[in-house]
Amino acid sequence: MAKRNTKAKQLILDSLKNTRSAISQEVLQKELGETVDRATIYRVLNSFCEDGIIHKILSDDGKYYFAVCMNCSEKAHKHNHFHFRCLQCGKIECLPNEIEVKLPEGYRSVNFNGFISGYCSGCS
C-alpha cells in the first residue's frame, strides 16, 4: 500500500528542511502551532525515520532530536557521524565526518549514537 503525502507530512518535512539543524518534537510543535497536533507529529516523525527521510538523535540532555537524512533509504541508514550540541545556543548539528568503528567478528552495527557537547563556532 502506498503512503499518502498529507498536508501535515509536507508541513513537518518543510519545517525540518528549513531549520538546517536537528530539532526536537517540542520545537516542531511550537513552529507548527495549531496546524498539526502533537500525536500526528509523533506519528509522522516515526514514519519518516522508518522511511529513511530523517534520523533520530538521542542528545546528552535526554531528548530526541530529528534531522533530515542525506543519502539514506528505508533499508540503509548511514549515520556514522557525531552530533554536536552547543551549550550556549542549543543548536544541534550533524558533523560531516563519517566515523568507521571496527566491531569484533560476528557483530553487526544497527545504530550509532555519537554525541559531543560544547560551544559552536558562533558562541565560542
From TrEMBL:
Alphabetic keyword roster: Metal-binding, Zinc
KW Zinc (keyword) present: yes
Keyword Metal-binding: yes
GO MF annotation list: DNA-binding transcription factor activity; transcription cis-regulatory region binding; zinc ion binding
Annotated residues for binding of Zn(2+): C86, C89
Transmembrane segments: none
Annotated cofactor note: Binds 1 zinc ion per subunit.
GO biological process terms, semicolon-separated: negative regulation of DNA-templated transcription; regulation of secondary metabolite biosynthetic process
Cofactor or coenzyme needed: Zn(2+)
SUPFAM superfamilies with a match to the protein in the record: Winged helix' DNA-binding domain
Pfam family, one: FUR
Name used for this protein in its record: Fur family ferric uptake transcriptional regulator
Organism: Chryseobacterium defluvii
